[in-house]
Amino acid sequence: MRALVWNGVNDLAVETVDDPQLINPNDVIVAVRLTTTCGSDLHFIDGYLPGMRAGDVFGHEFMGEVVEVGRAVTGTKVGDRVVVPSFIACNSCWHCDHDQYSLCDTTNPNAELQQPILGAPTGGIYGYTHPFGGYAGSHAQYIRVPFADANCFTVPDFVTDEQALFMSDAVPTGYMGADFCDITPGDTIAVWGAGAVGLMAARSALLRGAGRAIVIDRIPERFSLAADFGAETIDYGAVDSVQEVLREVTGGRGPDAVIDAVGMEGHSTGLQEVYDRTKQLLRMETDRAASLREAILACRKGGVVAVLGVYGLTDKFPMGVLANKGLTLRSAQQHGQRYIPQFFDYVAQGDLDPSVLITHDLPLEDGVRAYEMFKNKDDGCIRVALRP
After folding, report:
1. Residues 148 and 263 grouped into a single domain
2. Which of 165, 217, 244, 301 lies 20 to 30 Å from 53 when distance is taken between CA atoms?
3. What residue stretches are annotated with the Alcohol dehydrogenase-like C-terminal domain (predicted)?
4. pTM for the full model?
5. Residue range(s) defining the domain that contains residue 211
């Protein structure tokens, strides 16, 4: 089959690789109909996350059609159109029983690679380094899905492929951020980053009862999409201080909760940008964490800070601000299995259409160009849908 593979830092290629096979009786094979670029992939593409090996198929956000089923699978059959969360759950360990699916104790076969760094392993994820399981990813014609009964969600007829695609990762990640904020009616939620996850976080905050969602970014085409989702915007490059603007629009108090949807390769301005870029380029830190620091400073006293961005070793983390303002810090990789059925309802009600995140639609053979466009934000690119 054809697949997009990682061969080294900023070295991608579309190559012919072996087709996936059923390994365990609870596996299925899915013919990928749609997969998409994701900002999380840029971190290992740029060399800031270790654990990739030459020839690894990457990609973790996808939907498709089941073409082969293991003998122990009961809830999924050949021909089903399914969306699959990016993190793999077993649905029987302690963490899965508590709806913490990305923390599954069962699905990471390389737990020993994470244990020294994290203290305990996460669940496995498709196409996202060997410490996260070493699973082949979704930028391919076919993919093996373990524990299919826990991870395959049959897509209703009224949901399009394009809408289902982002229910794999971007929608549940953004929605989980809003869920973390403990929103009460009328709250103001500020979101750093208007990529797909940030936009979904803003939309989700409004769906969960927030009075206002304010998105901070710098790219004009993202602002128009944020407005379509009902959010207000701040261009951080056009104001002297994002914190001052947020205090002004919230009567001096600050947002009730903040969501960081940027992660380790964020942009900022002035000396902070120079400092972070220099240390990152010299590998003295992995993270340009300006957005996270700014979000913590901007949040009102007693508020919630939800962190969705991927981070490694963060310098200048303002722990004193967190403690003295009485803030609650909440973070996780997304628990998609908890939320996907709710997304189907939102689409049916006309409250959510994630397909508008697609700005470019290309064949998988153009995957290298897709990531160049996505990384550089060329031609107004927000997300590229890849069709194997």
Report:
1. no
2. 165
3. 196-263
4. 0.94
5. 172-331
Candidates 38, 129, 81, 124; CA nearest to 386 is 38
Q: What are phi and psi of 6, to 5 degrees?
A: -100, 125
Amino acid at 53: R
Answer for the pair 33, 59: CB distance below 8 angstroms, yes or no: no
| Dihedral angle of Cα 352, 354, 356, 362, to the nearest 10 degrees | -160
Find out whether 276 and 147 touch, Cβ atoms under 8 Å: no
Q: Are 173 and 191 contacting, i.e. CB atoms less than 8 angstroms apart?
A: no
220: three-class secondary structure by DSSP = helix
Q: Are residues 10 and 125 in the same domain?
A: yes
Provide the number of structural domains found in the chain: 2
Q: Which residues contact 352 (CB under 8 A, 6 or more apart)?
A: 171, 203, 207, 343, 346
Distance of alpha carbon 188 from alpha carbon 345, whole angstroms: 25
Q: What is the pLDDT of residues 350-375, one digit of tens each?
A: 999 999 999 999 999 999 999 999 99
Q: How far apart are CA 1 and CA 249, in angstroms?
A: 53
What CATH number should be reported for the domain holding residue 148? 3.90.180.10
113-152 pLDDT, tens digit each: 998 888 899 999 999 999 999 999 999 999 999 999 999 9
Helix (H), strand (E) counts: the chain: 14, 16
